[in-house]
Amino acid sequence: MQLRVTADTFPLAEVFTISRGSRTEAHVLTVTVTDGAISGRGECVPYARYGETLESVRAEIEGVSMPLDLMALQDRLPAGAARNAIDCALWDLEAKRRERRVWDLAGLPAPGPEITAYTLSLAGPAAMEEAARKHAHRPILKIKLGTPDDMPRLEAVRCGAPQSRIIIDANEGWSAEVYADLAPHLVRLGVSLVEQPLPAGQDDALIGMERPVPLCADESCHDRGSLASLTGKYDVVNIKLDKTGGLTEALALRAAALEAGFRVMVGCMVGSSLAMAPALLVAQGAMVTDLDGPLLLAKDRDHALTFDTQGVHPPDAALWG
Questions:
Q1: Which of 23, 93, 263, 316 has the most CB within a 10 Å radius?
Q2: Cα separations (Å) of 97 from 101, 157, 278, 316, 317?
């Protein structure tokens, strides 16, 4: 078995801005695992918020000893982007070896399409209203907030898309007091979910607070080890394969979260269809699916996922799984 990692860049359709900065390209790492005759692929997006860079994650991947299987991988690498790319490549390799789909190997029902949120880039209220109007046909719009001027932006988006379901990602940008002040307005404007209102590590302030709008743990939830600290603070957990370290742990986290009484959101970094394909298996029946990465790209992978009025569809085997 051999492992190869390459860096790939995908131009974005337009500048994408959140409270932490702007980007015009998506930089990803692609892992290919081959047994000599058959290859499997996986993709990850290193994330600076978690101390990851393209270089550091590439070094982690290249430092993994071979041979390797899914169970051994869980012990050799911690949760994070590096393990994600290898884990998904191993699932893809095994599916191709056995000429079966990944969901069959995992004992899951055949997946169907899932309606996905579409993320609006952070901008001034007028620009966000225009963007919301342009995308008002989409069932779910996600807004990146976490700034001192959040309410004008939210009001503008609701004006531009009066029928869309709205979810908010505060990107750790609020305090408990700000959330408490905003909560009645979030209800009034029909917001259905707020992601990570407070910084991870400072979210004990949510204990005992009223949550008229469900709160979702993103930066506070990585894998199953995170769940015990989330009770009483959050209603939903956001599962991202770049946080869990791959499909293997993502499926386990989903099962454990549901058993613990949490609802599930499945999200993504800005990546290609190759990164979204395994996440779609975890997203089946989720409260919120947020796998819009390919919709933000100017150019995607070959055999890209299909997005239509039914949502994002399961991958063709030529792409993954």
A1: 93
A2: 10, 48, 17, 16, 12
